[in-house]
């Protein structure tokens, strides 16, 4: 797997930035000095230019708030970005990588869009995939459990073109057959195996616990966010998400104390009571 933490051209700045902000700013009334971000990202191979460009773009799109203190510029979370990061936190620590639900319910989404709205059709498919849906058949997408897709439909302005309902499979349809048809379980499993191959040694080549924890979380989020969270009862008994999640949690515990100590020493924070800069 080519992870979000490492690609042939190095780490992907925005993906790692979101992870970094989720670890160090989520839940805090603080903004972080851009120089601190540049320092940490430099240790994992992201250039100063790439960091500055990423921060500027995220501030320009309303994801970050900009604050000035003296000659220094700090960046804080917008409400919109805090919501996104909170979703990631829940996905890691509350939802988890293994779906042990026995409810058996599914959410189905059907849509029909004319060729004149081809771009909207592409965006809807992309958003449904991100939300854990798989294509069951032409124009019909399915995901396990009850999924709220109202925000996706509203954001794309497709209220009159999308039908959403929940259902349970009935004979001759079996839930395992839905999983087989709609989801590429071999690829999902391979991402977990690749995560374990990379991290099972405990300390890949990052310089300290601060950067190890950052990249561990970035890699893990990259895996679990592309996992539709299929019911474990319809997956192989040796499904690798269980072992991979155990490894992630162990390494996070191993790195946490050292990472927190280095963060306190190296990250310069500013209370967000300060006025945003223009």
3D architecture notes:
Residues 101-179 form the Transcriptional repressor PaaX-like central Cas2-like domain. InterPro entries: PaaX-like_central (IPR048846), PaaX-like_N (IPR012906), PaaX_C (IPR013225), PaaX_trns_reg (IPR011965), WH-like_DNA-bd_sf (IPR036388), WH_DNA-bd_sf (IPR036390). By secondary structure, the chain is an alpha+beta fold. It has 10 helices and 8 strands. The strands form 2 sheets. It has a 4-stranded antiparallel sheet with strand order 2-3-1-8. Strands 5-6-4-7 form a 4-stranded antiparallel sheet. A hairpin with a 2-residue loop joins β5 and β6 (140-144). α9 (209-224) packs antiparallel against α10. The radius of gyration is 21 Å and the shape is globular.
């Amino acid at each position: 797997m080519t992870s979000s933490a490492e690609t042939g051209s190095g780490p992907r700045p925005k993906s790692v930035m979101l992870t970094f902000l989720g670890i160090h700013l989520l839940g805090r009334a603080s903004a972080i000095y851009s120089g601190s971000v540049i320092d940490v990202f430099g240790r994992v191979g992201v250039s100063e230019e790439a960091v500055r460009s990423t921060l500027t773009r995220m501030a320009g799109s309303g994801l970050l708030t900009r604050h000035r203190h003296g000659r220094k510029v700090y960046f804080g979370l917008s409400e919109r970005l805090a919501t996104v990061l909170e979703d990631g936190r829940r996905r890691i620590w509350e939802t988890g990588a293994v779906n042990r639900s026995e409810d058996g319910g599914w959410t189905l989404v059907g849509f029909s869009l004319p060729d004149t709205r081809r771009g909207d059709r592409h965006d809807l498919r992309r958003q449904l995939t991100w939300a854990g849906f798989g294509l069951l058949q032409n124009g019909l997408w399915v995901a396990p459990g009850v999924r709220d897709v109202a925000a996706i439909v509203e954001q794309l302005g497709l209220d009159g073109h999308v039908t959403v309902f929940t259902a349970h499979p009935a004979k001759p349809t079996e839930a395992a057959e839905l999983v087989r048809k709609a989801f590429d379980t071999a690829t999902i499993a391979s991402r977990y195996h690749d995560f374990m191959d990379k991290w099972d040694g405990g300390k890949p080549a990052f310089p300290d616990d601060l950067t190890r924890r950052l990249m561990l979380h970035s890699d893990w989020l990259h895996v679990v966010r592309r996992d539709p969270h299929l019911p474990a009862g319809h997956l192989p008994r040796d499904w690798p998400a269980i072992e991979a999640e155990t490894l992630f949690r162990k390494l996070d515990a191993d790195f946490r104390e050292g990472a927190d100590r280095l963060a306190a020493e190296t990250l310069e924070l500013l209370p967000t009571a300060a006025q945003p800069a223009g």
